[in-house]
Amino acid sequence: MGVLNLIDLAGSERLSRSMSTGDRLKETQAINKSLSALGDVIYALARKDPHVPYRNSKLTFLLQPSLSGSAKTLVLLNIAPSVASVQETLCSVRFGEKVMGCELNITNTRSRLTN
Question: Fewer CB within 10 A of the terminal residue: the chain, N end or C end?
Answer without folding.
Answer: N
